């Protein structure tokens, strides 16, 4: 009988499943279940998995494809496991971080701007952030829940420490994969799943709806109406927009389905106009309201911001959150936590260099080939320089860009992302992964157990984004702590 | 329901029906031509284009059978072509994917993808009948799938309403195209147009094969035979296709079916659309058709189509009216 | 000087249009130099006007007309008391502008913006002015002011969005162009500068005097303010080659025209429309109030928030 792990190597990276002496205790059950599966058995399970995904229509559209051919975001058969004690740190850290970010944003747009006045976050940095929306000035959000849905990207470094890589506070996507991955895994590996006592994720829809209704304006009355606003079927994340509307049992609308009358938003139905109180929008700020933002946008709703300002509708996520997930502002989030919460950050940042500072820039330019450089306002893994993987020409091109626009980029030390065995062909190989837990802000901040584990499927690659050829894993948060003692490994001793 | 989605459902129903009925009409025109002298060929296609209101789009080029068929079946620049109708049906269904059954979406999408992937031009040349029959069958499959997988709620009703109103119009055209073709044959005869009308009547009354083809293309031949045995009186055929309450492609069947859907959509209360549709249906139901050939069948059919068109417009203003008309523009002033 | 202002915008559409949504910035602000006594906006068709102060402190009136209409008329009326302002900036070396705290506070007015993005010609002209003026910041500001004031006022040669380098090359433009060009030159020299939208009460064409109680037809106007460390904003009107005084009524300030444009909106329907904007001003024959106490002004400003 073959063994999927027989040639598995650690290559000096922190591995989620294996430590030097063998399989980490919390992974033993799953590894034993999978280890001796025959290739026919694996194939059968892959067929089940693919069937589930196809029939659920879990796809993202590839832009520029007029046949609308839809691809799936491949899920690996081996899940990622997080023991309760590790999850506890992640959960508290994410709640802390998102709470501070909410406070910062509410203070910036609808408060005294204390963090700016006190120099915690430089004023000019805020004023030059691409995501800063002066147009949103003066619009308050109930409970300061400005990041109603946020995704905090975490990585584990070579010592296994969880660190925040970046914050996604505008329209983080991926939650649909979390729920569908789980639905598929419980059918692909039912026994392994049942043995592990995994914390459920399927209450996400009700949780999101509860948060949306909790931020309804006071004028909404007892039973506020929430909708999901999508740019339309041609958007690459349309599947997720539809999925979320279905999970919450609320209407999925496009901008043209809504109309503002006397600063109140209505939905156009076959029976007339129906008032809308909360809009979970998956449209970027610039397209939201042509009166205020891009006048050529047909995706948005004219007058929407005036309705929000009049206190007749709440827009979630709030307008202008991009100022706080700017990758240069990211460097100041630990200070925001200290300033607004009076606490030390639970989850550390990755060492980040701010390139407008002459000394830091000079030091970075000296060792550009060893660092990661990121544009401050991009998401989705676009426009990165990964020094060690780049050609000399690419490095030189970034040198020019940084010199021309030092505010436009940041540099970070390369994190040797942890690896996780991933089924490649018919055997397991180590691939780099990250974790995007999703936090929901309503009356308080809650984190759905687990999140999206993304896998860089290309050997050696550090970029996990779906748009860059990434895959995913179901993420199992265990009810139990990981055993703290080194248990007897002889039974499962392996070449690793 | 969102007004936009209701409208998309309505049009999804219309476009699939239009594609199917266009296939039926192309089929019947072909069929007729097999038994016609060569010179009539281009006139027959011209008549068909006219009945479908597509002659302007077709343009000034000479009407050759191959080009006309291509224009009607696969030309994507012609919004009335079968391929274009299916594409638009698919776009409409795609926008309401959250409301309809996944089986319905898959069947529409499959037809769309197949139409794109096959070498239709060659197939049209080689086996036009087979291709047209295949399109008809796939369109019917779409309805079958919808019928068997969807609850009878407003989603279903808007789609059914669109389909039934479209079919009512198209059945009128189906009768008209046949009748018009007979007329043109006679008009082109050496005796000249003066004797045309009367002779058309004569030809129409006697041409067994042609009326058989009409019935066949409306999937009504067997039903007709059971009702009328071997007689093939054009007045009977027209009456059957217009007024037979139990025949699924008859105009009255479609209008009464549409009325059921409309009443359910309006919650039973009378509305401008139900009133209009009621008037159109009853004026047809109680029409004596024996003199139709004498007063002008073509004009009569045009009148029925106009009434159905009015109903569709009233439906639009009643249910879809909350959408603005026209584009959005930015303004600025100093 | 007490002034009545009436700002009227009229759209006549070619057909029925619907779902119009708009923003108006026409309300005189209250600050150290002027005091808003009264302000009111009405629209036809009537609508509920919702007002707020934007990021720049400008009052914005928002309103919409959903149902079909073929014209839209907006009338804003204001009464404002203006005072003269001190124009005695101290002598300051240019280097004082490099103070990092000063730069941090004024960064928005030091960078390029949508209508203030300049190239080599504007940069070279600005540098010339600075060289001629020497080391004193106020001298440099005045040199740029005089340089821009030398352009010819000419309607029709430019439009909203004409780049400042083109304005310089043409040597002509309207008040927005004068303001944008001056701002570009200041920013190039590291002097924070902002755009001011407002009204200017002009003398009677026939007599050359102020007409009192008679209405004067004017247009909306634009000028600039340049910042001096430790002193404040120096207000200059390059279009009229003058300093800003009690005839100038400020609506609001921003990085450029886009931040304070008087009217913007959208509607649905046929695009064709006629637009008619009219501004009339009237000087009221009242005894001047004398110096307006600054504390009182701030109180009024706070009440508005």
Structure description:
The complex is a heterotrimer of chains A (496), B (334) and C (305). Chain A has 496 residues and is α+β, with helices and mostly antiparallel strands. Chain A has helices at residues 28-35, 39-56, 84-110, 114-117, 123-127, 175-188, 190-196, 204-214, 238-248, 304-309, 322-325, 333-341, 358-366, 392-404, and strands at 18-19, 22-23, 60-61, 70-71, 80-82, 149-156, 162-168, 226-229, 251-253, 258-261, 264-269, 272-275, 278-281, 314-316, 352-354, 371-375, 385-386, 409-413, 419-424, 427-436, 438-441, 445-447, 452-456, 470-473, 475-477. Helix content of chain A is 29%, strand content 21%. Residues 61-69 and 484-496 of chain A have low confidence and may be disordered. Chain C is 23% helix and 38% strand. Chain C has helices spanning 100-105, 120-133, 137-149, 164-170, 175-188, 257-260, 294-304, and strands at 2-24, 34-44, 50-53, 59-65, 69-82, 152-153, 172-173, 193-200, 215-218, 220-228, 232-237, 242-243, 248-254, 263-268, 273-283. In chain C, 44% of the residues are buried.
Poorly predicted regions of chain B: 185-206
Shape field of chain B: globular
Intertermini distance of chain A: 18 Å
Q: Major sheet of chain A, described briefly? A: 4 strands, antiparallel
Proportion of strand residues of chain A: 15-25%
Largest sheet of chain B: none
User: How far apart are the termini of chain B?
Assistant: 42 Å
What is the averaged pLDDT score of chain A?
A: 89
Helical content class of chain B: over 70%
Radius of gyration of chain B: 21 Å
Largest two-chain interface: A-B, 27 and 22 residues
The number of helical runs of chain B is 17
> Could you say which structural class the secondary elements and strand pairing of chain A correspond to?
alpha+beta
Strand order within the widest beta sheet of chain A:
7-6-21-22
Please provide the count of β strands of chain A. 25
Structural class of chain B: mainly alpha
| Residue windows where pLDDT falls under 50 for at least 5 positions of chain A | 61-69, 484-496
Care to count the β-strands of chain B?
Answer: 1
The tally of helices of chain A reads: 14
């Amino acid at each position: 009988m073959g063994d999927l792990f027989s040639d598995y190597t650690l290559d000096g990276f922190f591995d989620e499943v294996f430590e030097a002496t063998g399989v980490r205790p919390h992974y033993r059950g799953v590894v034993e279940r999978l280890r001796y599966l025959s290739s026919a058995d694996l194939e059968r399970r892959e067929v089940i998995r693919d069937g589930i995904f196809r029939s659920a229509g879990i796809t993202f559209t590839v832009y520029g494809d007029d046949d609308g051919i839809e691809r799936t975001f491949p899920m690996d058969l081996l899940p990622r496991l997080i023991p309760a004690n590790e999850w506890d740190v992640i959960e508290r850290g994410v709640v802390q971080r998102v709470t501070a970010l909410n406070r910062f944003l509410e203070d910036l747009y609808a408060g005294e701007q204390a963090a700016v006045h006190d120099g915690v976050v430089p004023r000019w940095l805020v004023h030059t952030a691409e995501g800063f929306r002066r147009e949103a000035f003066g619009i308050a959000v109930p409970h300061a829940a400005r990041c109603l849905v946020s995704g905090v990207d975490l990585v584990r470094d070579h010592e296994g420490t969880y660190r925040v890589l970046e914050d996604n506070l505008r329209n983080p996507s991926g939650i649909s994969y979390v729920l569908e991955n789980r639905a598929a895994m419980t059918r692909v590996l039912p026994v392994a799943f049942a043995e592990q006592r995994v914390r459920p994720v399927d209450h996400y829809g009700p949780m999101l709806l509860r948060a949306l209704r909790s931020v309804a304006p006071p004028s909404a009355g007892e039973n506020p109406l929430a909708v999901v606003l999508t740019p339309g079927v041609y958007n690459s994340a349309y599947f997720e927009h539809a999925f979320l509307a279905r999970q919450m049992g609320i209407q999925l609308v496009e901008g043209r389905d809504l109309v503002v009358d006397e600063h109140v938003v209505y939905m156009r139905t076959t029976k007339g106009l129906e008032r809308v109180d909360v809009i979970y929008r998956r449209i970027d700020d610039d397209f939201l309201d042509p009166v205020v933002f891009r006048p050529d946008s047909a995706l948005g709703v004219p007058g929407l911001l005036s309705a929000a300002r009049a206190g007749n509708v709440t827009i979630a996520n709030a307008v202008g959150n991009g100022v706080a997930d700017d990758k240069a502002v990211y460097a100041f989030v630990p200070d925001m936590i200290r300033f607004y919460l009076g606490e030390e950050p639970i989850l550390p940042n990755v060492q980040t260099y701010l390139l407008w500072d002459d000394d830091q820039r000079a030091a970075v330019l000296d060792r550009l080939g060893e660092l990661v450089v990121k544009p401050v306002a991009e998401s989705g893994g676009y426009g990165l320089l990964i020094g060690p993987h780049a050609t000399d020409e690419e490095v030189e091109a970034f040198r020019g860009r940084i010199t021309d626009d030092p505010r436009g980029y940041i540099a970070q030390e390369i994190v040797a992302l942890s690896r996780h065995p991933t089924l490649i062909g018919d055997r397991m190989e180590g691939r780099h992964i990250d974790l995007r837990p999703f936090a929901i802000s309503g009356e308080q901040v809650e984190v759905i157990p687990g999140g999206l584990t993304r896998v860089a499927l290309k050997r050696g690659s550090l970029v996990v984004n779906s748009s860059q050829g990434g895959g995913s894993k179901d993420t199992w948060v265990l009810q139990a702590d990981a055993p703290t003692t080194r248990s007897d490994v002889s039974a499962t001793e392996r070449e690793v | 329901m969102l007004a936009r989605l209701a409208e998309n459902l309505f049009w999804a129903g219309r476009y699939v029906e239009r594609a199917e009925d266009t296939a039926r009409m192309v089929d019947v025109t072909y069929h007729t031509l097999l038994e016609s002298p060569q010179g009539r060929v281009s006139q027959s296609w011209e008549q068909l284009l006219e009945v479908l209101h597509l002659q302007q789009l077709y343009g000034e080029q000479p009407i050759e059978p191959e080009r006309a068929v291509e224009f009607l079946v696969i030309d994507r620049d012609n919004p009335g072509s079968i391929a274009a109708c299916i594409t638009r049906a698919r776009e409409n269904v795609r926008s309401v994917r959250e409301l309809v059954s996944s089986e319905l979406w898959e069947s529409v999408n499959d037809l769309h993808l197949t139409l794109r992937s096959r070498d239709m031009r060659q197939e049209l040349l080689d086996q036009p009948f087979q291709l047209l029959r295949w399109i008809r069958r796939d369109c019917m499959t779409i309805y079958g799938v919808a019928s068997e997988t969807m609850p009878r709620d407003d989603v279903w009703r808007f789609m059914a309403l669109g389909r039934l109103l479209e079919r009512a119009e198209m059945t009128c055209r189906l009768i008209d195209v046949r009748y018009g073709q007979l007329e043109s044959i006679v008009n082109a005869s050496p005796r000249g147009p003066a004797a045309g009308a009367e002779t058309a009547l004569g030809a129409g009354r006697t041409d067994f094969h042609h009326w058989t083809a009409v019935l066949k293309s409306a999937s009504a031949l067997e039903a007709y035979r059971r009702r009328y045995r071997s007689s093939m009186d054009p007045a009977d055929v027209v009456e059957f296709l217009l007024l037979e309450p139990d025949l699924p492609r008859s105009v009255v069947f479609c209008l009464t079916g549409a009325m059921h859907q409309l009443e359910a959509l309006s919650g039973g209360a009378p509305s401008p659309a139900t009133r209009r549709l009621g008037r159109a249906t009853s004026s047809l139901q109680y029409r004596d058709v024996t003199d139709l050939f004498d007063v002008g069948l073509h004009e009569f059919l045009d009148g029925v189509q106009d009434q159905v068109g009015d109903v569709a417009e009233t439906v639009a203003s009643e249910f879809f009216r909350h959408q603005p008309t026209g584009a959005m523009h930015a303004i600025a002033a100093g | 000087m007490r002034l009545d202002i009436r700002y009227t915008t009229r759209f006549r559409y070619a057909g029925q249009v619907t779902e119009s949504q708009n923003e108006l910035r026409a309300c005189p602000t209250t600050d150290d130099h002027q005091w808003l006594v009264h302000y009111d906006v009405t629209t036809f068709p009537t609508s509920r006007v919702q007002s707020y102060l934007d990021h720049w402190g400008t009052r914005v009136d928002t309103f919409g007309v959903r149902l079909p209409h073929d014209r839209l008329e907006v009338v804003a009326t204001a009464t404002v008391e203006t005072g003269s302002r001190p124009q005695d900036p101290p002598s300051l070396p240019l280097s004082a502008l490099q103070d990092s705290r000063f730069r941090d506070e004024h960064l928005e007015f030091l960078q390029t913006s949508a209508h203030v993005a300049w190239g080599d010609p504007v940069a070279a002209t600005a540098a010339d002015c600075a060289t001629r003026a020497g080391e004193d910041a106020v001298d440099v500001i005045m040199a740029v002011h005089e340089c821009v004031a030398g352009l010819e006022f000419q309607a029709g040669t430019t439009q909203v969005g004409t780049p400042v380098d083109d304005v310089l090359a043409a040597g002509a433009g309207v008040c927005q162009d004068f303001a944008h060009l001056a701002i570009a030159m200041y920013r190039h020299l590291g002097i924070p500068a902002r755009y001011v939208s407002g009204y200017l009460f002009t003398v009677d064409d026939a007599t050359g005097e102020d007409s009192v109680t008679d209405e004067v037809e004017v247009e909306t106007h634009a000028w600039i303010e340049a910042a001096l460390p430790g002193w404040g904003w120096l207000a200059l009107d390059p279009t009229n080659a003058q300093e800003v005084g009690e005839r100038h009524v400020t609506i609001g300030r921003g990085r450029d025209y886009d931040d304070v444009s008087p009217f913007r909106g959208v509607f649905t329907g046929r695009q064709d429309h006629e637009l008619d904007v009219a501004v009339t001003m009237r000087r009221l024959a009242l005894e001047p109030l004398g110096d307006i106490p600054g504390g009182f002004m701030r109180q009024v400003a706070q009440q508005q928030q």
